[in-house]
Write a structure and sequence with these properties.
about 140 residues, Factor Xa Inhibitor, globular, mainly beta
Length: about 140
């Protein structure tokens, strides 16, 4: 049996890259995964006229990014993320996600969590959650 042919428009996730402003836009070294999540809050518009179903209206949008990577302690992007969480000043910074075709998603973010994991039989890894603030800019 032959392997199924993938649609030529499908791209590898390995090329979905996260960059952060660490004295210039720097790609997060050792990155394994990244996820951009955009959500729309709902306003309950249900009334007695709605019958048995809720009615909702779209409201405020929000967005976040999560990523994980192999940690290289000398990497300036991870140093900037750590400084933003553990340093004396909590700062916002610009982050950018780029697709293989060059589409970008760019916005201001705060670090909402930074996790490290050092398994006895594996690599030293970390994960970061970024919460967006302001508008998410998309270029096509």
């Amino acid at each position: 049996m032959s392997d199924p042919v993938l649609n030529e428009n499908v791209v590898s996730g390995v090329t979905f890259l996260l960059f952060i402003d660490a004295g210039g836009m720097q790609r997060v070294a050792g990155q394994r995964n990244a996820r951009l999540s955009v959500t729309v809050a709902n306003i309950d518009g249900t009334s007695k006229d709605s019958g048995d179903f809720a009615e909702n209206l779209p409201s405020i949008r929000s967005f976040s990014v999560t990523a994980d990577a192999l940690i290289a302690e000398s990497d300036i992007s991870w140093q900037a993320l750590e400084d933003s969480t553990l340093g004396d000043t909590r700062r916002r910074f610009m982050a950018l996600l780029q697709t293989p075709a060059g589409r970008t998603y760019k916005a201001w973010f705060f670090v909402s969590s930074l996790d490290y994991e050092g398994a006895h039989d594996g690599a030293f890894t970390g994960s970061v959650s970024l919460t967006g603030t302001g508008k998410l800019l998309r270029s096509l």
